[in-house]
């Protein structure tokens, strides 16, 4: 928690993570002290803000976490096709043209 920058990538991707009990408590233990100490945190997720309560199985805890994450933050929302899917299609087209 003392790092100047904490990167938490792909929140909600792992199925095991989704079944784990008391997820919001763990996230609060990590994120809330960082908010109070004004340390930078980057989080990536495909879960929309409005679904974090369901994901964490704790709507009140999710609200507290999101409230602090969004305060003094820059949110970047990326909508569109997957970059990996685009690369795969490009490679497939090249392969098909070569044949």
SSE arrangement:
Layout (H helix, E strand, L loop, with lengths): L4 E7 L3 H5 L3 H14 L3 E6 L6 H5 L2 H12 L12 H16 L1
Entry summary:
The chain is an alpha+beta fold and 99 residues long. Helices cover 53% and strands 13% of the residues.
Report on this model:
This protein is of the alpha+beta class and 99 residues long. It is 53% helix and 13% strand. The chain has a two-stranded parallel sheet. Helix 2 (23-36) packs parallel to helix 4. The mean pLDDT is 84.
Characteristics of this structure?
single chain; 99 residues; alpha+beta; two-stranded parallel ribbon; 5 helices; 13% strand
Low-confidence regions: none
Task: Please tell me how large the radius of gyration is.
Answer: 18 Å
For the largest sheet, list the strands in their spatial order.
Answer: 1-2
Structural class: alpha+beta
Number of helices, where a helix is a run of at least 4 consecutive DSSP H or I residues = 5
* Global mean pLDDT: 84
N→C terminal distance: 53 Å
Number of strands: 2
**SSE ordering:** EHHEHHH
What is the overall shape? elongated
**Major sheet details:** 2 strands, parallel
How much helicity do the residues have? 40-55%
Percent of residues in beta strands: 5-15%
